[in-house]
Design brief:
Layout (H helix, E strand, L loop, with lengths): L3 H45 L6 H31 L3 H7 L2 H10 L6 H8 L13 H37 L5 E6 L11 E6 L8 E6 L1 H31 L17 H17 L6 H4 L10 H4 L1 H24 L2
Antiparallel strand pairs: 1-2, 2-3
Length: about 325
């Protein structure tokens, strides 16, 4: 059970996590899927009529997808570090250099202990829970999931390292970039239909990065985005669940690598996972929350909006009048 002085901190965290699970992660998924649908339609259109879609359009959408995946990875690392270290999410986001946090996190992956991953994933510690004869299968599930999560995190790490410099430059609009270059100059890495060139050095002509494009590249982005969504939703849900139940960790709800288990083992897990959650039911906590939400009135731009719109419409009208006069001058 949480101490009384811990209660507000814990349920402030639940407010954040629940909002992210229901709104934040949905927004990221929706916007990414929108990009994927647009780019896939353009790819299909280009197959039928090559001249109808320029490579530059595809590369522009590609960079938007990269930016959204990098933001997804940022979410994952900040939540993971928050859960692992006990720091508040916004303490990391507001007080630390997020780029350095991500870099340190991925560099330290191999040194993370099993207990680190238990904290990140929100899993129970078997040393503190009695499963009787089911202990071995629960341990196998947790260890299998951790092994697979490490593998997936390393894929995210490779993606982040590969795109960090170009994402950082593009995010701040501080670098030359060229879209729509046909083919790919480094054939030993594969057959790509086009590429973009982006400067990543203080001297814009000294160091360039090449980002290739192909249909397989977009497919791989989809796979990574899907895995990010699944893991983020899982760790956030587990964190909420353990706070609601006032326990140190929960039973995994997802089997990340089903191939590790026989059919009999899967049947057993399907039985004992729901039983665990019945045993550790959610504790009623509304009486402890009593949250006073303070809505800030930092609203200047919207408060000035009516005057801005009126002024903009007047400016547009005057520009049209000027253009008519200008066009009439012989």
């Amino acid at each position: 059970m949480f101490k009384k002085d811990e209660m507000r901190e814990k349920y402030t965290e639940v407010f954040l996590l629940d909002s992210y699970r229901n709104n934040g992660i949905f927004s990221r998924e929706y916007l990414l899927n929108n990009d994927f649908n647009i780019i896939q339609n353009l790819i299909e259109q280009k197959k039928v009529k090559p001249e109808s879609v320029g490579d530059a359009y595809l590369n522009i959408l590609q960079f938007d997808i990269i930016s959204k995946i990098m933001a997804y990875i940022e979410d994952l690392v900040i939540f993971s570090e928050s859960f692992r270290t006990g720091k508040l999410f916004y303490e990391i986001l507001d007080k630390e250099d997020v780029g350095n946090v991500i870099k340190r996190f991925f560099e330290s992956l191999d040194s993370f202990s099993t207990k680190d991953f238990l904290k990140i994933m929100g899993y129970l510690d078997l040393e503190k829970e009695n499963f009787g004869t089911n202990k071995d299968i629960v341990n196998k599930l947790i260890q299998s999931n951790i092994t697979q999560i490490k593998y997936i995190f390393k894929i995210f790490s490779d993606f982040s390292i590969t795109h960090h410099s170009s994402f950082r430059r593009l995010k701040h609009a501080s670098t030359p970039i060229t879209f729509g270059q046909s083919g790919f100059p480094f054939k030993k890495y594969g057959d790509f239909s086009s590429h973009s060139i982006i400067s990543i050095n203080e001297d814009a002509l000294q160091k360039m990065k090449v980002i290739p494009f192909s249909e397989d590249v977009i497919f791989a982005y989809k796979v990574i985005a899907k895995e990010l969504y699944k893991i983020l939703k899982d760790i956030v849900t587990n964190r909420i669940s353990k706070i609601h139940r006032q326990i140190e960790g929960v039973m995994p709800l997802i089997i990340f690598k089903p191939d590790d288990f026989s059919n009999d083992e899967l049947r057993l897990l399907k039985k004992i996972i729901p039983e665990y959650y019945v045993k550790h039911s959610k504790i009623e906590t509304s009486a402890h929350m009593n949250a006073n939400i303070n809505i800030q009135e930092d609203f200047k731009w919207y408060a000035d909006l009516p005057e801005f719109v009126k002024s903009a419409k007047e400016m547009s009208r005057r520009k049209k009048e000027f253009q008519k006069i200008w066009d009439s001058i012989q």
